[in-house]
């Protein structure tokens, strides 16, 4: 198990919701945490709150847009200057906006790709890094379709596929960095309200009743439960390329077929 005491962690989308819960569980386990978020006022307020609870030098806030190479690269360099290294990277920043679908792709998938690549520059052994772990936050929509949000679904499927491929790369070329994925069911945060907003769901807004029925049938997760699942992926050093699904009735690692013949399939004639 990875000892988190005095490890340096970076969390994107850290100012509220799931990101904040990841920050707090890392701090509770002894890590130092750099918070990245596009929302300066909420980020600075949170930094003040965390300083009172955990001590002044344990958490720092940095404003940056994960869809900007210049922003993201610059802020990680500042974090390494301040803390000396990066041991844990959590690419959590995400939005739901089916109308502005290019922006959704740029943040949800582009931000994860960029965050993974930039963090690896500081973390991988061949660059003199100490290794560590990268956790990319996807969603149950990364494992199956969420009809109210096809673009969100596509980005989260992309996060799962990209992370699994990069975990294989890391193992093959010995980066010394584990890469895992977390796929939560609906979580009780302000993010849920976006699915009830025509401004964010666009032409798929009429499907909101179906989404609400899914939540009513199964319930919603609380952020604390998701944070505990996140901690499993961070600490368990046997886990690389793993996808952890968490629902209200429990968590489970997803088993993916390794070869084409292992996929459940129905033969079809091409004649």
Summarize the structure.
The chain has 271 residues and is of the alpha/beta class. The chain has helices at 17-28, 40-54, 69-83, 101-108, 110-123, 150-173, 198-201, 208-218, 223-235, and strands at 8-12, 32-37, 59-63, 88-91, 132-137, 177-184, 243-247, 250-253.
Give descriptors for this structure.
alpha/beta; 9 helices; 43% helix; 271 residues; globular; 8 strands
Description:
This protein has helices at residues 17-28, 40-54, 69-83, 101-108, 110-123, 150-173, 198-201, 208-218, 223-235, and strands at 8-12, 32-37, 59-63, 88-91, 132-137, 177-184, 243-247, 250-253. With 271 residues, it is an alpha/beta fold. The chain has an eight-stranded mixed β-sheet with strand order 3-2-1-4-5-6-7-8, with helices on both faces. α2 links the parallel β2 and β3 (59-63). α1 (17-28) crosses α9 (223-235). The relative contact order is 0.13.
Q: What is the secondary structure topology, with strand pairs?
A:
Layout: E1 8-12, H1 17-28, E2 32-37, H2 40-54, E3 59-63, H3 69-83, E4 88-91, H4 101-108, H5 110-123, E5 132-137, H6 150-173, E6 177-184, H7 198-201, H8 208-218, H9 223-235, E7 243-247, E8 250-253
Parallel strand pairs: 1-2, 1-4, 2-3, 4-5, 5-6, 6-7
Antiparallel strand pairs: 7-8
Helix pairs in contact: 1-9, 3-5, 4-6
